[in-house]
Every structure is written in C-alpha cells, then in structure tokens.
C-alpha cells in the first residue's frame, strides 16, 4: 500500500509556511525595529573602533587612504558581526559548557579570520593607493589574517563579557526576589504567631468581666469583632499607613477603656504629617498590651500610657510611654520571653535591616517604661483623609 505525502501540506499543517500563519503586524514591526537598531549600533561601534585605530595615522599626518583603510576594515567586521552573534547564540543554546564554547569559537576563528581578510581586501580593492591590500600583495595575507584572528578573539571576549554581566545582573535580581519572598514569608509567620496570642489575651480579658458586667462584655466583643475585621482587611499587606494603624489601635483601646474605666488614661498624639507613613500592621497593639499587663494592670491606682508619633529628619519616631511598674532590674531585651516584644523586634529587623536603633526599650527616670521605634520614611501617597497626597 502506497501513501502519497504532500510536503507542502505537511509544512502548512506544522505552521512553517509564513503566508498561512503570518506574524502579527506589531510583532513584525517590533522585530524589524530591533534588527535595524542592532545594525545601526554595530555599524556605529565598529566605526568608533576604526576611528580609534586611525588616531596614530591622523596624528602623524598620514594620507587619507590610510584612515579609509582602517574604517573599511572595521566595516568589514560590522558585516560579519550578525553572523558571529547568531552562531554564538546557537552554540550557547546547544552547549552550556564554557570549555566547549571556547573550543567552538577557537575553531570558528579560523574561517571568520579568513573571511574578514578577503572581504576587507575586496572592499579595499577599488583604492589603488592601499598597497597593503592582501588581494594586491600576497605578502600581507598573513598580517591581515593574524590581525583578523586577534580581532575575532577580542570581539568574542567582549560579547561573552556582556553576556556574563547580564547573567550576573539577572541572577542578582532573582536573588533579591527570593530574599524578598523569604522576608515576606517570615513576616507572615511572625504575624500568624502574634494574632492568636493577641486574640487569646483579648478573650481572656473579656471572659474576666462576663459574670460582673454582661452588658459591658457585649460592647467589648463588638469592639473586638471590628478590630479583627479591619485586621483581616489589612492581612494582605505587611505595612499599612500610620492612620490605619491608629484606627486598629483605637478599637483595642476601646476594649481596655471599657475594662479598666478611669484607672487607665491613654493618650494618642500623632503629627498629621506622619499619618501617611507606612508602618508594620499591628505594631502598636502588642506594645500597649504589654504596658497594660506588666505595668498598669496590677496597680490599684492604674496609670497612664502616652503614644506619640512625629517625623524627625528621615524617619518616623514612635514612642509608647507608661508610668507603671517599670522593667525588672536585670531585664534585657535579648532575654525577654514575651511573644509580643520578640515578634515586634523580629518584624522590624526583617522590614528595616539597614536602620540602626530601630527598636529600644528602657526604664524611665520617673518610673515606668519607654518604648522607642524608628521607622524610615516610606510614604504611601495617601493623606489622613484618604486622598492622594
């Protein structure tokens, strides 16, 4: 049984015939533009090489044809450059081994040097003053060949240098992307530790008031629900504006005010210019919770907490100050066991690795504790009213 095969039909079915599957006009136009741009760059580059090589001749007052010879020899390389780059691309795609690449170009250097020798001789032939033309004088063939061979090696070296440099930049960008993803994963993990911790403490505080004041507990639960809802809305972002952070904090403070009444006085003062600065989400809540639990909760007289934010030079300075019991005599941040402080410190270290003294906790001279945070300025472009700044 004989089967008739139509090669035209097979080629057309495989998509090899251009008329059947023409490229979109935009792609064709872009390809031609890129090709024309590359050709112009190659001609200009080799013209610059030819002029550079003719500088000694110009300085010594050599005849015009000597300068023309240098330019024509360089333009001969401009004609061969597309073929060299095409072969280099295919060799690189087929063999990623550097040794094979060097060996291939070493073998290719011979035919390309011969091609340049006779191509330059052909282009120089109309100028009879150029007596060193290899087609006119065979004694200069070896001279031209060795010069072409060295030029080929220099060209390949320059091309490979640019390729390796481009690969280095690409690898650096990939490395930065991986590092960024690792930091985001670490921040998400830290926040996942913080949120259940906060929720447990808030529910524990609410449960302590269930028997004494059910109506108060209902209002506290409503504030907790609003806080959790807004916290989930910000969950996709590692940073939010200070204005949004203060809104989250306000719901938490509402729970504590209902719980402690007049025993705890909490004041918040923020410079209006600082409200558009990006800060880590849920940054202030664990600090205020720490001040209440360890500084004010056990004191019958209660106390006060002052939260302030202001712009100083190139950073945002946030302070959380209380007049409570203060830190133990042998307390050190490195040995602190509290989850809230540890997670806050690690989040700040991950987000702002180049900022020194980003997080500090110290005793106040008049009693209590002072927390100071420095955050580099990263404006979001949104002002306090939600409009673009």
How would the global form be characterised?
rod-shaped
User: What are the low-pLDDT stretches, counting only 5+ consecutive residues below 50?
Assistant: 1-21, 381-389
Q: How many H/I helices?
A: 10
* Structure class: alpha+beta
Beta-strand percentage range: 5-15%
Count of all domains: 2
Q: What can you see in these coordinates?
A:
By secondary structure, the chain is an alpha+beta fold. It folds into two domains: 23-175, no CATH class; 237-376, Heat Shock Protein 90 (2-Layer Sandwich), CATH 3.30.565. 59% of the residues lie in helices and 11% in strands. The chain is built from ten helices and seven strands. The strands form two sheets. It has a five-stranded mixed β-sheet with strand order 2-4-5-7-6, with helices on one face. A two-stranded antiparallel sheet has the order 1-3. Helix 5 (98-124) crosses helix 6 (141-207), helix 6 (141-207) packs antiparallel against helix 10 and helix 7 runs antiparallel to helix 8 (242-260).
